[in-house]
Amino acid sequence: MRILLLALYAATSWAIAPGYMVKWSTTGDAAGIFKGLAGNIEFDPANLATASFNVTIQTSTLNTGNGLMNTHAKSAEYLDVAKFPTISFTSNKVVKAGPGYQAIGSLTMHGVTKPLTMPFTFQQTGTGGTFHANFTVNRVQFGVGRSGDVDDNITIDLTVPVTKK
Amino acid sequence: MLKKLLLLGAVSGLLAGILSLIYSKIYSHYLGVDFSTIASPVKMIASSVIGGLIAALGFALLHRMLGVRTDAVFNLIFTTLSFASILGPIATKLPLELQSPELFPWLVMPMHLFPVLGWLTLKPLFFPPKS
Fold first, then answer.
1. Is B99 part of the contact surface with chain A (CB cutoff 8 Å)?
2. How far is A75 from A59, CA to CA, in rounded Å?
3. CB atoms near residue A56 (< 10 Å)
4. Which of residues 68-127 of A touch B (CB under 8 A)?
5. At the fourth CATH level, which superfamily is domain A2-164?
6. pLDDT digits (tens, 9 = 90+) for A87-101
């Protein structure tokens, strides 16, 4: 009986599959991607109480497509990758929101932690699935660069294919 | 004279293209990067030959205006323009799937100087200096 209950309440664990895309963009020229996404994803659409996200991105994997812009973005003036090697998101709870979901938690970037609500959708296909999220982060609030140089608001577009663990 | 100039432009451009090709092979081999989708062999040779032909037309045009002083002025313009053109690769934004874009300018910048080097090297063979 206890095993049955555990099985009922156990969250579904997902492993991040290759081919994920972490894009960021502004209304100007500054745009790019991050590689180095890793973490634990627990998500069952039928049991959101057990859902949790604990993911990190390696800041050194930033790529804008231009060497000078990469150096600038990774420098102490912006992401300061030597001092802050990761950006992380940890959810506190996941709730249903319209056709999708919301992961409510905290984002840590540049050594600053702020609350973040990340809207996302999930499409399951057999033993796999794809998470998709699109949200905006105000980089200045995290101490990433000064206001005005680049857009304060950075749009993040995540497409993360996953497979069942 | 124009035919000879165009031949010099084409041959020196071809030489520059071949040098670019060799240089890119060495660069990719030792640094482990592959920018062949951006700087393909066809693009390297074609752009060098086109550059050589444009230089030939420029020389012919300048010769009509300057006569005997053409060489000095042309060499100065060609070298300056070639040097200025290296700003292009520095500002280039590569497709995001290509890693290490900071190594791209170091691949392409020397190539921008090969056409002028080819021209200066081969010109005495096509137009021997009058003693």
1. yes
2. 11
3. 17
4. 68-71
5. Lipid/polyisoprenoid-binding, YceI-like (2.40.128.110)
6. 999 999 999 999 999
Instruction: At A75, list the tokens.
Output: 């420098």
Residue type, B4: K
Dist CA A79 CA A84 (whole Å): 7
pLDDT at position B68 is 85
Residue carrying structure tokens 């949790």: A52
Closest CA to B45 of B85, B17, B5, B3: B17
d(CA A65, CA A38): 22
- Chain A nearest-CA distance from B89, in A, is 9
Q: Is the four-CA dihedral B73, B76, B81, B84 of positive or negative sign?
A: negative
Rounded Cα–Cα distance for residues A145 and A75 (Å): 10
Q: What is the pLDDT of residues A39-79, one digit of tens each?
A: 999 999 989 999 999 999 999 999 999 999 999 999 999 99
d(CA B47, CA B87): 17
